[in-house]
Batch of 3 targets.
Target 1
Amino acid sequence: IEGQMELVSAMLKMLSCAADKFFHRVLSLPLFPSIFSLALSLLSSQDRDATREAIRIVHRFIFQPAVYSSFFIPALSLLLLNAGNFQKMNLSQIFSDLIFDIMQKGVNRAEVE
């Protein structure tokens, strides 16, 4: 299982790097919903690297309209349920950054509506 988690973590890191240059191409991949679902499931992983990459993927893509409409509530629920786990893994800062962005963008959406 340890080798598999390293592979998954590397795959998510590769996706994150690809998104730096080809963001909309990554978002339009037919497998993207499955990849994002995998990232969500890894939020409760005990593997620090995989969890860190999962948080980064969620942060990078959660505000895209197609992702937001399907995954926002499950993502937020999983993030909040695993907050203690993130703290134990010393991932509090990237978790806090994501939650701050969620709150900030939520306020901005409310102001627009």
Note: Residues 2-27 form the longest helix (26 residues).
Target 2
Amino acid sequence: MSSNNRRGGSRHRRSRSNGYNNNNNNRSNVNNKNLNNNNNNNANNRNNVNNNNNKNKGNSKNISKITNTNAMVQFYAEKQIPSSQNSLSACHLNITDAIRCEAELTLEVNAPKLIAENWVFYVPVPPTTSFQNSGSVKIMLDDPSIEAPDCQFLTDINGREVIQILVDVSKHKHFSKSIKLSYLFTVNLFGRDLYFDPNQSIPYQIADDTEIKSSLSVNNSFSFYDEEFKQWMESEGSILVRQQEEFFDQTVIYAQRVFSYITSNFEYFWSSNLDRSLTNIIETKKSDCGGLSKLFCSILRSQSIPARCVVGRWCSSKVKNDKSCHVVAEFYVDQIGWIPVDVASKILHGSKKQSSDQGKLPYFGEIGTNFLAFHIDYDFPLDSVYFGTSNLRHLQNPPHWVQSSQGSLQNHSFSYNWQILSRESL
């Protein structure tokens, strides 16, 4: 993602466009060292971005500010609750619980053989979902200097919001060999449970045009127009095909049938080099939470139902740092709103829970207050500033780069620590 702001005094000049950086060549030589904690591939397709100076779409409101007090630099951004209206549907999402959660993700980078000149970081702003709102993020940098780093608030064409942090070591000299940032996420979380009652009318969340369009799109992650995927859909007969009557409220019936099919015929599997392509998932009939959620969303998108993956971390008080990353899915039905589903949890833990009296399966149309969303869907082409554009699959571990003309990356290391600070009832 890119910005049009200039920073005076830098001896490194870079070209800017109206969208993502057009430089396709990552530079890594004796004069420029690239340290990135993700597998970076230059993006072939560039999505355009808009600076936050443009008017916000829909009914959400963004607030941002920079403060620098007591050696702690903070950048704050918050997204407010979207508009809603009373539903005409017989299906409703009940609120079963509500909490205010604070969680901190700390990134520490050490490069003892390097003399850093500039650091680049990105962090997502928590989105509004079926179970989360009023999300905010504070970036805290232990910094005795009086000058704040350059922070930019950016939004891509799908409405996803990130903050870019640029640290010029000439103004923060103690960061020449190491740096430590803390990202403080604060959100309202709601337990949700889908139920049927034709005699009720309750408010539901309205999706804006940007959300609907992005949740129906075809891209590298959701390649449901590929011939192999279409042939697989056809081979399964009518199970995965939306029937004529399965619109409006009946969309829920179809979505649960897809959910049931996946959770009955696929296995949960994770590895560090897992291939999460749709082709591999349907061939091997296994994947992790990200792959299984993507399969569910791809099937629904192929039937013109808005569906999206929600990427984040578990935020219960008992969560272990190395097992906190998770992905769930949501699909949208007019007059009901975004409906949460957790495909992986159904496969792993569904045998311990029974269907509801109304026939709803466990982990379908329900979610607790133990998951904090970082962003929607995958694939972030991010401007690394000094090394071109890097296409990152997700931001569960917010990325970083370091630029230098002196030293080497020998013995460099980085680590993340995820900690739940508080969970208070609303």
Note: The two ends are 35 Å apart (CA to CA).
Target 3
Amino acid sequence: MSGQCLEMKVKIQAPSSGYKIKIEKIYQAGQTVIALCRVSQSEGMAAQAITGIEDSFLCPAAVFHGGVSTEVQYYVIGRSWTSPENNEADVTFVESDDAFQAKVKEAGGRMVFNAPKK
């Protein structure tokens, strides 16, 4: 943790520059930090080339109860393509909000922070 904040940063590969990723909510399950991220596609033309897309912000450490790991597990909803595969070990793609909520419940997690709107 950097000072009084934990950096949240997710990056994945998308098939075009028309995609964006947004970190929406932060959860805590024991020592584990879990981030819910959502991919969206802008309307209109976009370059059809594999593109890294990312989002980041500093989350106040005060929202976490007890100590937490500096490792963050990122769950991404909204991926509509089958390739390229993601090379980031800390990113898991889930099909829906319900599937994500089931994983959080299984881990005993609870929401601690809504990410800032950009």
Note: Residues 8 and 87 are 18 Å apart (CA to CA).
